[in-house]
C-alpha cells in the first residue's frame, strides 16, 4: 500500500518535471522564432553596420534585406561586397555609380 503511494507520487513528480520541461522548451522555441522575425524585419542594417566586429559571425547567406531598397534579396540577385554586406546587384550597381563605398559600413570599395 505504502509502496503504491510512493510509486504514484514519484510518477506524478516525474510527469510534472516533463510537463515543465516541455513548456520551457516551447517557450524557448517561440522566442527563437520571434528573434528571427525581428531580424528579418529590417534590424539587420543596424546590427551589421555599427562598429567593426559586430558582424564577425555574419553569414553572407543570411536573410538580411538589401539596405538600399529594404527588400529581401533572392540568391540569384545577391551581390556581396568585400565587407560581407549583401545587396541586390542592380541596387549596388546603381549606388556605386555615385559613391564608391559600402552603403552599410562606408568601407571604400
Ligand atoms: Zn535592393
Ligand atoms: Zn559594408
TrEMBL record:
Q: Which residues form a coiled coil?
A: none
Q: Which Pfam families match?
A: zf-RING_2
- List, alphabetically, the SMART domains matched: RING
* Entry's Gene Ontology molecular function annotations: ubiquitin protein ligase activity; zinc ion binding
Q: Which residues cross the membrane?
A: 6-26
- Every RING-type domain range: 66-106
| Keywords on record | Membrane, Metal-binding, Transmembrane, Transmembrane helix, Zinc, Zinc-finger
* Gene Ontology BP terms: protein ubiquitination
Q: What is this protein called?
A: RING-type domain-containing protein
Query: What organism is the protein native to?
Result: Anopheles albimanus (New world malaria mosquito)
Amino acid at each position: 500500500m505504502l509502496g503504491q503511494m510512493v510509486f504514484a507520487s514519484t510518477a506524478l513528480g516525474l510527469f510534472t518535471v516533463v510537463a515543465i520541461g516541455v513548456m520551457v522548451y516551447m517557450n524557448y522555441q517561440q522566442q527563437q522564432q520571434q528573434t528571427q522575425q525581428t531580424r528579418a524585419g529590417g534590424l539587420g542594417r543596424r546590427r551589421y553596420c555599427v562598429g567593426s566586429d559586430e558582424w564577425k559571425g555574419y553569414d553572407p547567406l543570411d536573410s538580411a534585406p538589401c539596405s538600399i531598397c529594404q527588400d529581401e534579396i533572392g540568391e540569384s540577385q545577391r551581390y556581396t561586397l568585400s565587407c560581407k554586406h549583401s545587396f541586390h546587384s542592380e541596387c549596388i550597381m546603381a549606388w556605386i555609380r555615385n559613391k564608391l563605398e559600402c552603403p552599410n559600413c562606408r568601407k571604400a570599395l
